[in-house]
Design brief:
heterotrimer; A: 328 residues; mainly alpha; MetI-like fold; 66% helix; elongated; C: 540 residues; alpha+beta; D-Maltodextrin-Binding Protein, domain 2; Dipeptide-binding Protein, domain 3; 7-stranded mixed β-sheet; 17 helices; 32% helix; membrane (chain A); transport (chain A); transmembrane (chain A)
């Protein structure tokens, strides 16, 4: 399967760099070591797309990793929507008189430095983290797929310009960009943090999407559709997109976990989410100062964060295994 | 090959200009840097105006950028607000960060690849599962938590290391910070190697080699490893740029006076000159690392030829 | 309360006597050659005397320079140092005579010209010196440092060199305590090398103080060594000081724990709880001339409506100062009772009842007052602070929690972190903050005037909230014109009473200097500006 397109670009699409955000992309490369970054669909000529997805689903249903991570994620989504279902307290109800106290009846995780109940705050913190993770991933996936897909589909000057723009955003170190951009934000909602992640995260997906669109474009049935006079939008949406989307989904799922962890790092540097938003990142960074006196303040939010990130990465792993025919 | 390199170098120019312009605009969004220079009181207006004039802050942004880039090409990276030449800061900061990055890369190569090969060859066995879970845990815990914990345990409780790094930043002081910096990438290298080895083990050429009766060790090192390491090496290569720019957290925890430290300081002080200067160099490192990785790719994988 | 304070003073005196005898006995094992390792922050500005306005650069200047006067590290009294005499007959024209024999460490003699040149440099607009306003009282300042446009003179017309060791100063107005301001680093003398080889001087400053700079690695480390040629009587009692830059004072504290560092002069709030158990009596906590307040904006219409001062008074009563200073700050802050500082002393104008009930916590009264005043404008009080330094998040969150609890509403108050100090200051000084913000004031000199006028006088330099009250202004003007100190202080205190009525800023607490040190060193103390008195430190 000799590749007529520029191999160098393919190599970049596979490797990439720029901090935690695109680590996942690198891993996804192994889906196809031919350097295009594209996964399964184009792999076996004549494999109908539908059977790939139904095969994958059948695989997933039987994969314990998928079931466990799926259940954890369902639980997280549930408490993000209805935290009061399992925590009766108010996360903002804090009494300094209780500062740093250990666990007591009714307050199993103890109190934090401000005398807030750690259990309640850990439960309520899920909402911000899940919102940041899901919204940032959606934004990155949509923006990255559209720009990367267009570059791959149209090629030529479009590709050259879009790829250079991708490189520009890729070259900015992520944590640094966060420090600079978020240090001026005054809003205390989750949106600036999400916006920043989308702004600096899309190149990762864009490269994957571009590579897989280029591969999908060369498939026989796409060439046939073109010969039959199908319009560009129709070809993109009906024929190419369904076949190119698998690697994007894989990378996006793994990236979701890294976005949640990134939010905590930004909080540690003082530019993450702001009160009265309750988030694990805020609590972890506050507790990290008191790590010697009251490790319980750090343990619970950090544990919850780690489990969440773990669940999403495991889900991404399972999805990748299912979508990669070579590993069957 | 030569033509390819030239074309890639030409492509770097717009990326370089775009990335520096982007960071320049971002730093400018941060607002008036002079206000923070006078402590908790207001700067006297005449001095503030004079300072702005001297640093060129009274000019439109595009003009500031043009002047700045013009100076950069003559090797003048400007002066930070505290009167220190940015090149002077770079000459002390970069060697430290390069050492730190090297330590981190060595960890990635030695531990990451070893564990990856081990698990790749023993896919599905307890060792494999254990390492896989370990890598997931490392990836899930934020670096700053890992760093603070190691600092507390090794530095204070058990007194194995000094909790912070001296300004000489010798390699032995950088071992623990290097491990912390490398940790997440390390986990990825392990996983990447593992997948790659497992995949190539079933490749035709490996079967052929085994069928020829070559010793197992030779099959693994000469055939399997060489091909499986291609994605790993490209990953590590591009990771160099990310490690250098991403050391802000690690350098802060261990008080390492490297690039991340200067960048953090520069951002807090809103010192445009420091931030833009350091990022400019980091962007260059990133671009060059990318180019080298792509060339390396061709060297390792004979199927790829650059025209 | 008063009795307790006196007991404490007595105890301090005993400690001082004991230490003195211990030192006099010469029982210590140190031979005075040991080097102290101390935490440092990268100075914000170039290390020029008139350009250094923060503690980190101030530390260095305090070691390498001696000016005409020096504030006694214990009492804060301005004592002659290089000055032999500073005489005046009319409180406006001063004759300064300097002592013979003083030298800079490069061998040059300290002369009248060293001072006059330094002051002219510091005052001139083209040199961008951030402390230039210190020279504002000297005649001719408006020519070398006009508010707008370029300077029309090169030197201050009020400064004249008479001979090698004498110069005269003419002020624009009568200012009887002007000599007491001369302990500031901005008034230090400068050697010729400063002007001739400026860049070289900046990379290795040369002064006339007890220490010389051995090496300076910018942004990272400075090594200072005892200078044997020093002329003053406060010679260094150690071999030198190594200053090491930390971005995170938690790391500095961790280093102190690990025996990697001898002195941390800013113990982070989160470690205060450990400090006593970690360090025992090697932890010091001494009053400094710093007060923290919550300032309010008087430029919008939110906080200017009649009756809204009741809301501010109510908020003040909703803050449980005792609990916060105890839990968050481990008593390194003292609940505020007025708008000045206890280091002034009663005679200097400190009063423990100027704020009165308004500074006493009472949740029920607080709620009543806020309701009477029409509730918090906009429903929520936003307290802005800079998140990058100074452990502000902890106490702002605690203040908000206290207010929320008192008012029975979780959304009454919320902290608003601003990413960087620079951005925070620029928002405050350009009147862009629409809620309250943290305001800190560190005194320039120990006078009540310095706490009130710059902060609350109409359009004063640090009156970021644009508070304005005719009665207050009038009393301040009268106090400034008063020649009798006691009468002036009374007038200032009358003015302070207006602050209690209008509550333009809620006094929170007086800040102490806190420091911890290793068992390698002894005789560590902080002065009123919370800077360690390095030359007195002994290395065992």
């Amino acid at each position: 399967m000799p590749e007529p397109h520029e191999p160098a670009e393919g190599a970049i699409a596979g490797t990439g760099a720029g901090g935690a955000m695109d680590l996942a992309a690198s891993e996804a490369t192994t889906l196809s070591p031919d350097g295009t970054g594209a996964a399964g669909p184009g792999g076996g000529p004549g494999t109908p797309a539908r059977s790939l997805w139904s095969d994958a689903w059948r695989d997933l249903r039987r994969n314990p990793v998928f079931i466990i991570s799926g259940l954890i994620i369902l639980f997280l989504v549930f408490i993000s929507l209805w935290p009061s279902a399992i925590a009766s307290g108010d996360p903002l109800d804090c009494d300094l008189a209780n500062a740093q106290k250990g666990s007591s009846p009714g307050h199993p995780f103890g109190y934090n430095g401000q005398g807030c109940d750690v259990y309640t705050r850990t439960v309520y913190g899920a909402r911000a983290s899940v919102t940041v993770g899901v919204c940032a991933t959606l934004g990155v996936a949509v923006l990255g797929s559209v720009l990367g897909g267009l570059a791959g589909f149209f090629g030529g000057a479009w590709d050259a310009i879009l790829s250079r723009i991708t490189d520009i955003f890729f070259a900015i170190p992520v944590v640094l960009g966060g420090l600079v951009l978020l240090s001026v934000v005054t809003s205390n909602t989750v949106w600036p943090v999400i916006g920043f992640m989308v702004l600096l995260g899309w190149p990762q997906i864009s490269r994957i999407a571009r590579g897989s669109v280029i591969t999908a474009k060369q498939n026989d049935y796409v060439q046939a559709a073109r010969a039959l006079g199908a319009s560009n939008p129709r070809m993109l949406l009906r024929h190419i997109a369904p076949n190119a989307v698998a690697p994007v989904i894989v990378v996006a799922t793994i990236a979701l976990g890294t976005y949640i962890a990134l939010e905590a790092t930004l909080s540690y540097l003082g530019v993450g989410l702001k009160p009265p938003t309750v988030s694990w990142g805020i609590d972890i960074s506050a507790a990290s100062q008191y790590i010697r006196n009251a490790p319980h303040m750090l343990l619970w939010p950090a544990g919850a964060l780690a489990i969440t990130v773990l669940a999403f990465i495991m889900l991404g792993d399972a999805v990748r295994d299912a979508l990669d025919p070579k590993l069957r | 090959m030569g033509r390819y390199v030239i074309r890639r170098l030409l492509q770097m120019i717009p990326v370089f200009i775009g990335a520096t312009l982007l960071i320049f605009l971002m730093v400018n969004v941060m607002g008036d840097p002079v206000a923070g220079l006078c402590g908790d009181r207001k700067c006297d207006p005449a001095t503030a105006a004079q300072l702005k004039k001297e640093f060129g802050l009274d000019k439109p942004v595009w003009q500031q950028y043009a002047t700045y880039m013009g100076n950069v090409f003559t090797g003048d990276f400007g002066t930070a607000f505290n009167g220190q030449k940015v090149t002077e800061l770079m000459s002390t900061a970069f060697p430290v960060t390069i050492r730190l990055t090297l330590v981190a890369v060595v960890f990635e190569i030695v531990i990451g690849i070893t564990l990856g090969v081990l698990t790749g060859l023993r896919r599905g066995r307890p060792v494999d599962t254990l390492v896989l879970i370990l890598t997931l845990v490392v990836i899930s815990v934020p670096t700053f938590v890992t760093g603070l914990l190691l600092q507390l345990l090794l530095g204070v409780q058990w007194s194995v290391i000094k909790p912070s790094v001296s300004s000489e930043a010798t390699v032995d002081e950088l071992i623990v910070p290097g491990l912390v910096l490398a940790s997440v990438s390390l986990a990825y290298v392990t996983r990447l190697t593992r997948t790659s080895i497992a995949e190539n083990r079933r490749a035709d050429y490996v079967r052929t080699a085994v069928a020829k009766g070559l010793p197992r060790r030779r099959v693994i090192t000469r055939h399997l490893l060489r091909n499986s390491l291609i994605p790993v090496i490209t990953f590590i290569g591009t990771d160099v740029g990310a490690l250098m720019g991403g050391a802000i957290v690690t350098e802060r925890i261990f008080n390492i006076h490297g690039v991340g430290f200067q960048l953090y300081q520069g951002i807090l002080r809103q010192s445009t000159q420091t931030v833009v200067g350091f990022v400019t160099v980091l962007v260059l490192v990133f671009l060059v690392a990318n180019l080298i990785v792509d060339l390396l790719y061709a060297v390792l994988d004979p199927r790829i030829r650059y025209a | 309360m008063r009795g307790a304070t006196q007991a404490k003073w007595a105890a301090c005196a005993v400690v001082v006597v004991l230490t003195a005898t211990a030192c006099g006995g010469g029982g210590g094992g140190g031979d005075g050659s040991g080097v102290v390792g101390s935490s440092w922050g990268d100075p914000q500005n170039p290390l020029e005397p008139a350009n250094t306005n923060e503690v980190q650069g101030g530390k260095v200047l305090d070691m390498i320079f001696r000016g005409l006067k020096r504030y006694d590290p214990k009492t804060g009294e301005a004592k002659d140092m290089v000055a032999e005499s500073i005489d005046t007959e009319d409180s406006q024209n001063f004759t300064v005579k300097i002592k013979d024999g003083w030298k800079f460490s490069d061998g040059e003699s300290v002369t009248a010209k060293s001072f006059v040149d330094a002051w002219n440099y510091g005052a001139h607009l083209k040199n961008n010196q951030k402390n230039a306003y210190f020279f504002g009282y000297i005649e001719g300042y408006d020519k070398v440092h006009p508010e707008k446009g370029d300077a029309t003179a090169d030197t201050l017309s009020g400064l004249k060199v008479k001979d090698e060791r004498t110069f005269t100063v003419k002020l624009t107005q009568k200012f009887s305590t002007w000599p007491d301001t001369l302990g500031y680093p901005a008034f230090a003398p400068l050697p010729k090398a400063f002007f001739d080889k400026h860049d070289a001087w900046l990379s290795k400053p040369v002064g006339n103080g007890p220490y010389t700079v051995k090496s300076y690695q910018k942004g990272s480390k400075m090594e200072l060594r005892k200078w044997d040629g020093y002329q003053g009587d406060d010679k260094a009692e150690n071999g030198g000081v190594d200053l090491k830059v930390y971005t995170d004072n938690n790391t500095a504290y961790t280093d102190l724990m690990a025996g990697n560092l001898d002195l941390v002069d800013d113990v982070p709030a989160s470690q205060l709880k450990n400090a006593k158990s970690d360090l025992g009596d090697r932890y010091i906590n001494t009053p400094a001339g710093i007060i923290q307040t919550l300032a309010f904006p008087f430029y919008g219409d939110k906080w200017t409506k009649p009756g809204v001062e009741k809301v501010r008074q109510g908020l003040s009563r909703a803050i449980n100062r005792e609990q916060i200073t105890e839990t968050i700050f481990q008593k390194t802050r003292t609940p505020a009772k007025d708008w000045t500082s206890p280091v002034l002393g009663k005679d200097g104008g400190y009063s423990d009842d100027a704020c009165g009930d308004w500074c006493e916590y009472d949740a029920a009264e607080a709620k009543k007052l806020v309701e009477e005043g029409g509730g918090i404008p906009g429903g929520t009080l936003k307290i802005s602070y800079n998140a990058d330094t100074g452990s502000h998040k902890e106490w702002v969150d605690a203040v908000c929690n206290s207010i929320n609890k008192a008012l029975g509403n979780d959304r009454s108050c919320v902290g608003n972190p601003v990413g960087t100090f620079a951005d925070f200051r620029s928002q405050a000084s350009q009147q862009k903050l629409d809620g309250a913000w943290r305001a800190g004031w560190q005194m320039d000199y120990p006078l009540i005037q310095n706490f009130l006028e710059p902060n609350y006088f109409t359009d004063a330099s640090s009156n970021d909230g644009k508070f304005s009250d005719k009665g207050f202004d009038k009393l301040i003007n009268e106090a400034n014109g008063e020649t009798d100190t006691a009468k002036a202080v009374t007038k200032f205190q009358d003015a302070e009473k207006i602050l209690a009525q209008k509550m333009p800023a809620i006094p929170l607490w007086y800040q102490n200097g806190s420091a911890g040190y290793s068992d390698r060193v002894s005789d560590v103390a902080l002065n009123q500006f919370s800077v360690p008195v390095y030359e007195k430190i002994k290395v065992n």
